[in-house]
Amino acid sequence: MQKLGKPEGEKKGHTIKSGIKSMGKNYQLYLLLLPGLLWFLAFAYRPMAGLRIAFYDYNIFRGFDGSTFVGMKNFVDFLTGRDFLRVFKNTLMISFWQIVVCFPVPILLAICVTEMKNKAISKLTQTATLLPHFISVVVVCGMVVNFLSPSTGIINLILTKLGFEPVYFMVQPQYFRGIYTGMTLWQNAGFNALVFIAAIMGIDPQLYEAATVDGAGRFQKIRHITIPAIMPTVVTMFVLNVGKMVKVGYEAILLLYQPSTYATADVIATYSYRLGFENGNYGLATAVGMFEAVIALVLVTLSNWISRKLTDTALW
Amino acid sequence: MKRKKEQGRVIGTGERIFNGGMAVLGILISIVALYPIFYVLIASFSRPLYVENGSVMFTVKGFTLESYRQAAAKPGIWLAYANTIFYTVAGVAVNMAFTTTMAYALSKKKLVFRKFFTLLTIFTMWFNAGIIPTYLNFRDFGLLDTRTAIILGFAVNTYNLIIMKSFFEQVPYELEEAAFIDGADHFTIFFKIYLPLSKPALATVGLFYAVNRWNGYFWPMQLLNDETKVPLQVHLKKMIVDRVANAADAALVTPDSLSSPTTIIYAMIIIAIIPMLVVFPFVQKYFKTGLTVGGVKG
Known about the structure:
The structure holds 2 protein chains of 2 kinds. Chain A is mostly helical.
């Protein structure tokens, strides 16, 4: 054992020396790395240093010197404030519907698309469901808002024709989660199905042939071949989605919500946004954002660990 | 042999029903997915009276281009359009310059601390400072209300960087080795070997960036105040999300009206998404490549 250890130590010294030598020889490699690296430091890591605003009663015009250090006060204020429960619950509820509806649908869609024997229809389905993903969030929200308009929106025109009273969907909190879930489903189902389609395409066709010989029907093949084969992908994606639970699409929510729907629509990110940019309370707003980011990091790390335990596939 | 052939030909009734059912399902899903866009399209070409009494559902009624004429005459829309084209072209150029160089360096085993640098980039996918520190960072650099902020501030997307790096890692090492023996340096190898060999990868990542640039809304909205600098999405937000046609507008629509706030909004939506619809087939072609290479692995 000791004899083995020694040469290894020598080898290490050798690598360091040759490492420095290689750095000199490959200096151009570092020149190529430099612009990107500087970008990351300036635009991704420098803001992280700005997170200390969360511990100040921060005055945007006076900077750190003119602001008072308040320790954990901002976090305590948020966690004990009257809005905490609302925004925390809304964040989780919106994520809950994302996981219950927007997660399984792409899997079903992928199975359907790959089961279609008519290639033209299969291609059409894939293209049609992928298309909405390329439309901007502003346009999608614009469509939602105008379709749901009580006087001229198509949804209410249909409701009126069927003999119902028109509903002002956008101002009533009970509809918000449904609208948001439906909208994201329409926009992302085809895109999210891609990874599952790729997984199904990767299944060995001989498995299906063998099952045919054994007299298995299509449903049996889906149940006993397709689903078990894509299970690792499903588990990985599921865990990943749970990991992203506190990160909801604030961009779309900011476009769709209004004070009358805050009861169900206001999430941690939008709350932080308003505290900062509308109330000018940058310290508290940063603390709220940091609370979200830290929980997200913990959830992602945890879910990655679970994914590795369950399926041997992990993100890192 | 014979048996196999027979099995290929014989399709049971159950199988036939299943295939028929899947075809119908596929068509239904496609209709549901495409209908919202289709509706906006037909409504934008129809007379407001028919749109607003609900008789436009599947076809254009009372064809008119007036909504497009009105939409095109709105102040600011073409300037915003031009801004978006500028941000997309200049932005993607900057994106590609930063992304390819960094991806090349990170794909090389010779790079000392390669793991550390890679982790440094990937970490930003799981943790970021958030909206307010990011905004204040732009402010510290004096970049508020500048085009530079939009173009330089979003020069690298970590996900695209990883895709590019994975592509570069697949370039056979022998090519590079041979070039080294011939006395080539990294710059030569990067420009003369890697870039020409990675055209599909460049197209994929370039299109990803272009779509993001074209559709980008939040940060341009947050960082730009000057009306003459805002891109199309920010401009559209005011026109189509904030200004929902209301009951008062509807009351103004007469049988003779050729356009109304609603139909103008629909025309604007079509004007805004046409470029995406045009590039979409190309994007779709490259999408799967990008996804399988960059993959779930990240």
